[in-house]
Amino acid sequence: MPELSHRRRMLVLAICCMSLLIVSLDSTVLNVALPSMRQDLHASVAGMQWTIDAYTLVLASLLMLAGSTADRIGRRKVFMAGLVLFTLGSALCSIAPSLETLIVFRMVQAVGGSMLNPVAMSIITNTFTDPRERARAIGAWGGVVGISMAAGPVVGGSLVDSVGWRSIFWINLPVGIAALLLTLKYVPESRAAKARRPDPVGQLLVIALLGSLTYAIIEAPQKGWTSAEILLFAAVAAASLIGLLVYEPRRADPLIDLRFFHSAPFSGATVIAVSAFAALGGFLFVNTLYLQDVRGMSALGAGLYMLPMAAVVCVLPPLSGRVVATRGPRIPLLVAGVGMAASGLMFALFDAETDNALMFTGYVLFGLGFGAVNAPITNTAVSGMPRSQAGVAAAVASTSRQIGQTLGVAVIGAVLAAGVSGAGSSGGIGPAGDFVAASKPAWWIITGCGVCVLVVGALSSGRWARGTARRTAELLEGAATAGHGPAAGRPGARPDGKSDGKSGGGPDGQSGGGPGGQSSSASTRA
Q: Helix or strand or coil: residue 497?
C-alpha cells in the first residue's frame, strides 16, 4: 500500500471507526431494547440471550476467516462486502415478524460484521506503520467503543420509548451506506504479500466448538446440566477443541496459527479480551433486566442510569492509547483489572443495586476498568507479528472479544435464570429481593473476570513476557525465511513486497516487537 498523507490516514481511520461504531452501537442499543423485545415477541430469558449470542457467536466463528480472506483477496473488497451485508441484515432485523426470524437476521448481520472490525483493524495497522502513531490510532479506535456505549443506551432508549424497538436497527442504515461510499473513494486496497490458503476443516471445527459450547450453556438451565442433549453438545465442543489442537499445527497455512500463542503478550491479550468482554456482556445483561424489569424504568431511563459508566468508557480509551504508546500496556491493564474487580465486588458484597450512590460508584468503576482495557488488548495482539499476517492477528483479538461476550451472556444469563427459577419466579424476573439474591453469583463471576485481567495483565507485560514476544517474532520470521513464503512475507517487508529497510517482528517493521509496538529495548521502561 503506498504511503498516504497524514490527512488521508486520518480519513481512513475515521472510515474504519464508522464500521466499529455501527457494530458496537448495535450491541449497546439492543441491550436497552431487550425487555420491549421480550414482551413483543413473547421471549424467555433464554430467548433474549439468543438475540445477543446468535450475533456474537457467528461473529466469533467467522472473524478469523474474514481476516485471512481479506489478507488474501484484498482488505477493501472484504470490508465493503461486510458493510453491504451488515446494512442489509439491519434492514431485515427491523421487519422481523418473530423471535426465530430475528435471530436468523441477526446472524446475517453477524456475517457482515465479521468482515468489518478485524479487517478495519488490519487496514489501520497497515496504514499507521509508526508504532506511536499506531497506538494513538488504536486509542481513538477504542474511543469509538466508548462513544457507542455512551450514546447507545440513550439513543436506543429514546427510539424504543418513542418509535419502538424495531427502530434501533434503522440507525445502522445511513451510517453503513455512508461508510460504503467513503470506503470506495478513499480507502486504498491492500493485501498480504503471501496469500494464505483457505482452511475449511479448521473453520468447521471453530464453528462446531463455539456453537455447541454456547448452546449447552444457554439451554442447560431449562434442559438440565446432565441431560443427554446437553452432554452431547458438551462432547462435541470438547472433540472440536481437541481436533483444532491436533489438526491446525499440521497445516502450512492454518486458520489459527498456534505459534502466535508462544508470545506471552499475545496469549495474555487473548485471555484478557475473553475475560473483559465476558464481564461486559454479563454486566450489561444483568443491569438492563434489573433496571427495567425490577425497578420498572423505561428504556430511556435505564439508558440514562448507565451514563456514568458509559461516560468514563467514552473518555478513557484515547488516554489509555497514549499511555500504551509511551509506557507500554502494563499500567492500563492493571487499572482495567482493578476497576472491573472492584465494581463486581460492590454488587456481590454490598448489594449496590439497592442504593443509587453505591450503584453509580460501581458503574464508574466498571467504566474505568473497561475503558482502559481495549487499547492494550489490540496493540499487544498485533505487536510482534509479521505485517503480512496483521489481519489474522487482529482477527484473533477480535474473536477473543466476541467469544468473551458470547460466554459472558451465556454463562451469566444461565446463572441468573437458574437463580430466578430457584426463587420461584417462573416465567418472569421476579421482585427486587429475589433478583438481587439470584444475581449474586453473576457478580462474583464478573469479579473473577476482573481479577483474571489484573493477574494476566501483570504476568504478560513484564520483562519475561517481552522476551517471549521477541522469540516468537524470530520464530515467525525464521519460518518465512525457511520457505513458508516468499521473502516479501517476512517481518519488515512492505505489503507491496518491497523491503522497507527495517528488520524485526512488529507491524511497524522495527526490531523486537515489544508489547507496546516498540522494540524490546525501548519498551523496558514500561
A: coil
Q: How confident is the model at residue 315 (pLDDT cuts 50, 70, 90)?
A: confident
Nearest to 218 by CA among 411, 463, 430: 411
The answer to whether the beta carbons of residues 317 and 325 sit under 8 Å apart is no
Which of 95-109, 151-165, 239-253, 322-336 has the least mean pLDDT?
151-165
Which helix (H) or strand (E) segment holds residue 205: the answer is helix 200-223
Angle, alpha carbons 251-256-257 (nearest 5°): 65
Location of C-alpha cell 453438545: 233
| Mean pLDDT value across the chain | 80
Phi, psi of 290 (to 5 degrees): -65, -50
Q: How many CA atoms lie within 13 A of 501 on its CB side?
A: 0
Q: Which residue has the cell 503478550?
A: 265
Q: How many CB atoms are located within 10 Å of the residue 412 CB?
A: 27
Helices 200-223 and 45-73, packing angle to 10 deg: 170
List, for residues 263-284, the tens digit of each pLDDT value. Answer: 888 889 899 999 999 999 899 8
Judge whether 155 and 149 are in contact, CB under 8 Å. Answer: no
Cα 87 to Cα 83: distance, rounded to the nearest angstrom: 6
Write phi, then psi, for 44 (nearest 5 degrees). Answer: -90, 180
C-beta of residue 444 within 8 angstroms of C-beta of residue 341: no
Cα 320 to Cα 20, 79, 333, 342, 366, distances in angstroms: 18, 27, 9, 19, 15
**Statement: residue 458 has pLDDT above 70:** yes
pLDDT of residue 382: 66
Give dist(CA 54, CA 224) in Å, integer.
Answer: 21
Task: Give yes or no for residue 441 having a pLDDT over 50.
Answer: yes
d(CA 443, CA 72): 43
Name residues whose C-beta falls within 8 Å of residue 320's C-beta, 6 or more positions apart in sequence: 139, 142, 332, 335, 371, 372, 373, 374, 375, 376
Which element (helix H / strand E) includes 269? helix 264-289
The C-alpha atoms of residue 140 and residue 138 are separated, in whole angstroms, by 5
Are 214 and 46 within 8 A, CB to CB?
no
Distance from chain centroid for Cα 141? 12
CA atoms within 13 A on the CB side of 499: 6
DSSP helix/strand/coil, 499 = strand
Instruction: Name the more confident of 158 and 482.
Output: 158
Assess contact for 289 and 34: CB atoms under 8 A. Answer: yes
Answer whether residue 502 shows pLDDT above 60: no
To which residue does cell 518465512 refer?
A: 480
pLDDT of residue 505: 35
262/494: higher pLDDT? 262
Q: What's the CA gap between 170 and 146, in Å, rounded?
A: 21
User: Is the predicted pLDDT of residue 93 greater than 50, yes or no?
Assistant: yes
Contact predicate 19/79, CB 8 Å? yes
Question: Quick check: 434 and 425 in contact, CB under 8 A?
Answer: yes
Please, which residues have CB within 8 angstroms of residue 310's CB and are 6 or more apart in sequence?
A: 28, 146, 149, 150, 151, 152, 153, 367
Report, in angstroms and rounded to the nearest whole number, the Rg of the chain calculated over CA atoms: 22
